[in-house]
Design a protein that fits this description.
Blueprint lengths: L21 H7 L5 H14 L3 H7 L5 H11 L14 H6 L2 H7 L1 E7 L2 E6 L5 H11 L2 E6 L2 H11 L11 H9 L2
Helix pairs in contact: 2-3
């Protein structure tokens, strides 16, 4: 499986204009071939799932590579939630119910700015609603779907304040499963 190196300037991938479609971005970066893209698109048409999920299902790319591609596509930073210990004021700014509704995990808060990790930047309308609900400026970044699920469980454990863990602790916990 190929790796995806993030560009400083996403427009470098095509010269002067940014790539708008995830599949084409991954083809141009050498992660998948045109044939693999066509097979993934066919699967997407059959099952209605997101293209990245179809590529993962077919074994063409893992979810980390897909998230990096989505990050580049939308010009948003990639947030590795296994490396983040969210600030308590960020967690307090976004109750669990709202985090689930808007599919946004709070990562940090700096004054009136709330950094959140999301899996689908295509749902920007939800971020607008989140901004209205919190009264804060929302600054999104991209994370993987499995990290999102893990973070929701870790950061909002059973309605009480969680003691967020680092990657080292997460790896130890994953090894014991």
């Amino acid at each position: 499986m190929a790796t995806l190196t993030m560009l400083q300037d996403p427009s470098e991938a095509t010269g002067s204009r940014p790539i708008k479609r995830l599949g084409q971005l991954l083809v141009r970066r050498g992660v998948i071939t045109e044939g693999q893209l066509q097979r993934a698109v066919s699967l997407q048409e059959k099952n209605g799932r997101r293209l990245g999920a179809c590529m993962t299902q077919l074994g063409y790319a893992n979810e980390h590579i897909i998230a990096l591609g989505i990050s580049e596509q939308h010009r948003l930073p990639f947030l590795d939630l296994l490396e983040v210990v969210p600030a308590q004021d960020a967690l307090d700014a976004l109750p669990k119910e709202d985090a689930e509704r808007y599919q946004a995990v709070p990562v940090s808060r700096h004054g009136r700015i709330l950094r959140v990790a999301i899996t689908d930047p295509g749902r920007l309308a939800g971020l607008d609603e989140l901004q209205r609900a919190t009264g804060l400026t929302i600054c999104p970044g991209v994370c993987t779907e499995s990290q999102f699920s893990w973070a929701m469980e870790q950061f909002y454990m059973q309605g009480r304040k969680a003691k967020p863990v680092t990657k080292k602790a997460a790896a130890a916990a994953a090894g014991s499963r």
